[in-house]
Amino acid sequence: MAEAERIIGTPDSAGADETAASDESTAREETAAPGGASDHDGTPAPDGAAAPEERPRGRRRIVALFVVAVLAYLLDLGSKMLVVAKLEGHEPIDLIGDLLRLDAIRNPGAAFGMGEAFTIIFTCIAAAVIVVIIRLARKLYSLPWAIALGLLLGGALGNLTDRIFRSPGVFEGAVVDFIAPAHFAVFNLADSAIVCGGILIVILSFRGLDPDGTVHKD
């Protein structure tokens, strides 16, 4: 009788041993999997946690860009309104002897009085620059680039406002310039913002810093 039970019970015992061995092998494979804990789809958890951190960082850079742009635009707009109200039609004001003075003029050309015969072309270029900067902002992860592009955007908006709303007509308006250094063209704060932003972009490019925050060396 005991011999019969031993023979009958052998398959069940073997099956139990195989099940235990399979469970032990599975546990070893899960422990050895790279990255420790993983999601149900096999993706390691640390990789999934990195993406949400990138989005707030990118949004902060976009906010910085538009804050700089708004400040540059408001400073330019306010200074032009003050110049038109208080200085236009009056004698220039000397700030540093003959080296620097305030002199209100209307400029139909580009920055620093260049290209007076191409007002509409410069207006279209300014509008295109604004569109490009806004599109580029979606991939912006560098604070220095945010500042540079914000200066460009604010300056371009400042002069574009003059092109649209000032005489002699829409898209042909003359820009208000008033900063007059000796032996140099008369310009305004929008021109200054554009030049400063352009210089900063050149410096960042030479240093190998891209708008997305990556650094490369050629």
Summarize the structure.
With 218 residues, the chain is mainly alpha-helical. 61% of the residues lie in helices and 9% in strands.
Q: Please indicate the percent range of residues in DSSP E strands (runs of 2 or more).
A: 5-15%
Largest sheet: number of strands, sense, barrel closure: 3 strands, antiparallel
**What does the average pLDDT come to?**
79
Our Rg estimate from Cα atoms comes to: 33 Å
Q: Distance between termini?
A: 86 Å
How is this structure best described in words?
This protein is mostly helical and 218 residues long. 61% of the residues lie in helices and 9% in strands. The chain has five helices and three strands. A three-stranded antiparallel sheet has the order 1-2-3. A hairpin with a 3-residue loop joins β1 and β2 (100-107). α2 runs parallel beside α4 (143-165).
What brief labels describe this structure?
218 residues, mainly alpha, three-stranded antiparallel β-sheet, 9% strand, globular, disordered N terminus
Task: Set down the secondary structure blueprint.
Elements (H helix, E strand, L loop, with lengths): L1 H31 L12 H42 L6 E4 L3 E8 L11 H18 L6 H23 L9 E7 L7 H18 L12
Antiparallel strand pairs: 1-2, 2-3
Helix pairs in contact: 2-4, 3-4, 4-5
